[in-house]
Amino acid sequence: MLLPVQPAHALPERPEDRRWLIEDLWGDQAVGIVGGEPKSGKSFLALDMAVAVAAGVPCLRRFRVPRAGRVLLFAAEDPLPIVRARLTGICRAAGVQLADLDVQVITAPSLRLDLAADQERLAATVATLRPALLILDPFVRLHRRDENASADVAPLLAYLRDLQRRDAVAVVVVHHARKGAGRVREGQALRGSSEFHAWGDSNLYLRRHPDHLTLAVEHRAEPSRTGIPLGLRVEGDTLALEVLDRPGSPAVSTPPPSPTERVEQALAAAPAPVSLAVLRRSCHMRMARLCEVVAALTAAGRIRKTAVGYELAR
Fold this sequence. Notes:
It contains eight helices and 13 strands. It has helices at about 40-55, 80-95, 115-130, 150-165, 195-200, 260-270, 275-285, 285-300, and strands spanning about 20, 25, 30-35, 70-75, 105, 135, 170-175, 200-210, 215-220, 225-235, 240-245, 305, 310. It starts with 19 loop residues before the first strand and ends with a strand.
């Protein structure tokens, strides 16, 4: 029996609006690695990606998210209260509320990609929840195989690739780099088999310097970037990574709009009164939170309800 073939000119084209999950940072439905040495901010970067995708706001306050979507997260090393606290801090930096975001956290005490039963449970969970992004942090806690052996690592990565293809989900795996690998090319500094570097469609690598971090972005089919300076901003109980204007300097960025501002901006851009359902999609907010904001703005006389929806008060 022959294999199916198709003329090259008849192959499907990728729509431009489906090119990125996070513009310039992570491809749409891409699998890949967030890598770096211990204490280089890998988990903070992965959680920032989670908040950005779930809220539809720029990742690191810089990289635009074309479409919001559900996020499924498994944090194998951090206690759940720590995960919540970190997400809350990143949400404050992004100007959104954690309660408004569709971030689903796997609370099972362990998840082993080298066990058939756990593979089936994860596949069923992804198939049911249909996330746009799956984050697994870190890889070393997801198996008991030899990471230096290609024969051990390749089947685990192949399973995640199959998951991506079957469920159209982007997959982020947090993975450690070797200690003292600062002189080696970022992808080749990853701990273990070269399968990790070869597997990724989009890979992000963090390196620690005396007074800042740098981010390298690598894509299979898009231009790559290196040397993006990052800093960990601390403001009260808010802790989040941000792109620095120059290495070692404090980040300067325009604060993202508040929920109230997002509603007013959406109404200002609408040519006609907007229903709550349309407003919810525009503002990427939970309906309960949106109703609170709309009620407060209506009571303050800043917006008004008409027979067909809401509009700014003139």
